[in-house]
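From the pipeline queue, job 12 of 40. The input is one protein chain; the requested action is below.

Action: predict structure.
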Amino acid sequence: MQKTSSRLLALLSLLQTHRDWSGDDLAERLDVTSRTVRRDVDRLRELGYPITAFKGPSGGYRLEAGSQLPPLLFDDGQAVAMAVALQVAATDTTIGEDATRALSTIRQVLPSRLRQRVDMLRITAVQPSENDSTSPGDPQLLMDLSNAIHAHAELRFDYDQDQTGPAERPRRTEPHHLVTWRGRWYLIAWDLDRDDWRTFRVDRIRPRTPTGPRFTPRELPGGGVSAFITGRFRGTDGTTTDWPCHGEVVLNLPATAVAPFARDGIVEELGPDRCRLTLGSWSWTGLAAAIGRSDTDIEVIGPPELTNAFARLAARYADAARITHPPETQVTDASGSVET
């Protein structure tokens, strides 16, 4: 019986790889006869696993999705990965409670050696600031949007753009994808009235029912959801993930001091205390401000738009300094000395 149980688990593990297996292949992998494979398949079916047989030279088997959830089999790595993923999901305000309950269920059936590994990892959720009272979107709303996406049904909804002014007229859209970005849910949709792609925050959507007519999905720019949403949040039309503004400067700092703060920029060492930084941003002013945070002398290599942005920022900062501290006002710097 011990040998049979182990063989059943091994057979189930093979079938869960989501591929078709011939009877001969399974027999060879398990080191048994084809007749034994057939008997073991029947035993798994009795346990609730929906295994179908297909015709062929040697016949074959496939584990299908069933109407009921039978016992699942995970190896050590899969079990730990699922527990870690559920700990991360438990920090989400949308599905955190369900993820916590699922983690508790899985933890109870983990072997002690795996439970100890999982218990060594503790993830603490950092709650949003008090003035950020918006929620990422409730589960029912996410399900409603997902249903419209999969049904290819036009979706009308009220959308509170800035949550301060009067609501606009209902938006008419062709919903395409739900994505998460930095803790929030977004709906990617084709806006029928604006004839363009739009990205909507889910927590500001109030769907209207019923949904509209069916539509044929359009091809999303950029070649995929990830590229499109990355491009949109970088200020492009979604067809590229490149920043719309790129600049190159030389900083009087070691490359090792700049690299941790360069994000997706390129840092090249020019000497012990000098480096070249190539960085992108959504605007030239934003790029100049980001580089200015390095708090060191800056030599602009190019392009001219970046030089002009530094000039505009310098003028604004000078005006701000004059307004805040008129010439006759004494100013104490960080070292404690007094300047007039």
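Job complete. The two ends are 92 Å apart (CA to CA).
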